[in-house]
Amino acid sequence: MPPPSAPLPTPERILHRLEWRVIRRLDGLLQGDYRTLFYGAGLDFADLREYQPPDDVRHIDWNVTARLDAPYVREYVEDRELTAWMLLDRSPSMAFGPEERPKGLVLTEVVTTLARLLTRRGNRVGAIFYNNVVERTIAPLGGRNQVLRLAHDLLQPPPNTRTATNLNGLIHAGLNTIKRRSLVFLVSDFFSEPGWERPLRLLGRRHDVVAIRLWDPREVELPEMGTILMEDAETGEQLFVDTSDPKLRRRLAEIAQAREQGLRAGFERAGVDLFDISTEEGLVPALVRIFEQRKKRRR
User: Fold this and answer.
1) CA-to-CA separations, 1 to 4, 5, 139, 216, in angstroms, rounded
2) Helix or strand holding residue 177 (H, E)
3) Which has the closest alpha carbon to 88: 125, 119, 54?
4) Is beta strand 83-89 parallel, antiparallel or unpaired with respect to 183-188?
C-alpha cells in the first residue's frame, strides 16, 4: 500500500501549527516584549520640536525644516491600539525554493505569525495581495478570524501574469490605500523592475515600514547538477544550462553579488530597514533576529 499522503494545508492547521511551534516559543524567548518590533506604528501627531540627536531622522518634517532653516521633528503619541498592513508580493518567483518550503510557504508562515501576534493584543491587520496587479485588498480587522482569512487567501494560487514583476504597483497601492499612519510590512523577494526606491521612500515617511526579503540560497549560488533546463518563473523563458561549468557558476555568483549590493543601496537611499528570512531558516530564530536587529536600530 502507498504511504498515506500528508493532509492538505488548511488555514486552521497552519495557524494551529504556528501557535504551538512558533508563537509559544517566541513568547518564551521574548517574554511578550513585542514592542521592539511593533512600537512606533500606531501613532497620532502631537507636536513639532527642533531635532536633537539621536532622534529618528525619519520623523523630520521636511516642509517645516525648509521654512525655518533648521531641522524639526514630528512628535507622536502612541495609541493603545495600532493598525498594521501587509503588502504582499505573490509573483511567480515566490514559488521558488525547496519543494517542502518554497518562498510562498514562508510568506504564509510569516504573515500568519505576525498577524496573530498583533491581533491577539487587540490590534487590527489588513493586507494587499499583489502579482503585478492588485489581487485583493483586505480591510484591517482584529481577531482570530481575520488571521484565518489571511491564511486562507494566501493558500489560493495567484493569477499568472507572465510579466516581470514591478513592485511599484504594490508600493503605490499602499500609498493610495493606507491613509492613517500605520505599521507596514512589505514582504517580497524583491526581484523587481527598477524604480521602486522613490515610492518606498514616500511610504517610509508616512508610515513605519518593515521590509522583509524572502530568499533561497540557490538564488545566490547555483548548485552543481549537470545540464538542466531552467525557466524564468515570471516570463516563462526557458534555457538549458550546464551547472558544472565553473565560469558560469562564477558569473552567476557575481551577478547575485552585484544585485545584492544594489538592493541594499536602494533600501539605504529609501531610508527603510531591510530584514532577511531564508527558506532554510527556522521561523523562530529568524523573527527573534529581526526583533533584536530592530531594537538595536531604534536605540
Assistant:
1) 9, 12, 47, 35
2) helix 168-177
3) 125
4) parallel
C-alpha cell read off for 26: 517566541
Residues 102-142: tens digit of each pLDDT = 999 999 999 999 999 999 988 999 999 999 999 999 999 99
Using the structure block, give the residue that is written with the C-alpha cell 547538477. Answer: 225
* Domain residue extents for the chain: 19-42+79-293
Options 3.40.1400.10, 3.40.50.410, 3.30.300.130, 3.90.930.1; CATH for 19-42+79-293 is 3.40.50.410
Distance CA 204, CA 212 (A): 14
Cβ–Cβ < 8 Å for 281, 290: no
- In this structure, what C-alpha cell is assigned to residue 281? 531558516
Helix, coil or strand: residue 299:
coil
